[in-house]
């Protein structure tokens, strides 16, 4: 079985091209030429070679690994590129040329749209430094001396779901009135039974379609501006990593469905205005999917290590929103801050007590 591997090369000098997030063009680092992504249509096959998938040595990989690995030959230097079965865009480890695998974008695997990177590697490093500054209890060594071990731009596969949610709900609500009658202050609480029903429409609710990506990270990176989606072209992938989806749209839909239902219930409760309390008695929802799009969204992944433990950071490649694992704490700073705050509160309480005693 043979498959094609593609490099994008500069028509002027033959150097490798990569997609530049600032100019939104394919750029050659050798001669400085730049090209619009739609200059290179897939059918034109910019630099392509048909390569046989090679068997891997059992001394190098386990049988299970062999089943999920593929090997391709780099069109630029002829080196063997090893990657897993879902890899769609990578780079040659020897010549560093961006390498694309067209078969991973064929047929139902082809995304309808791509959201191009707006922020580059330097932006990601700067955002991480700013992220550190907002964490006052980070150990100094982690902040100042802990270097990034790995940083990579990844186009993550996502499903975008359209749908509707119908709801029928009932709430127990209260409204309180306080008034004075003679020498007494009276609190009057009125109880109400509220019925609500309706339908909400949803558009482009995202759920990542890669089992490699932590769902909680991908959810926390939102929002994305989907108005900036562009029709998919493989050339947007040049210089970045990408995996095709390995979680199908039916399996992923329950995540989006849960989000739609929670949003509908929250909107329904918020419609109960003018009451001090509003407690749900029941909220019955029925969700229906009306459409699905397969898209690639931009994510920067940054990895570092501290005291032998790996830490992962992810950044929205469009707006710079950053999320992370639980970070280490400098317990000396935490305890010192607690002592200072406690001492300050004790001084304030002492002064208040003294002032009250003096007034008496």
Automatic annotation (TrEMBL):
Give the matching Gene3D superfamilies. Answer: RNA polymerase ii, chain L
Q: Which residues form the signal peptide?
A: none
Matches recorded under InterPro entries: Trm112-like
Q: Which domain of life is it from?
A: Bacteria
Keyword field contains Membrane? yes
- TM regions (residue ranges): 334-356
Checking Pfam families in the record gives: Trm112p
Q: Which UniProt keywords apply?
A: Membrane, Transmembrane, Transmembrane helix
Report the protein name in the record: DNA-directed RNA polymerase subunit P
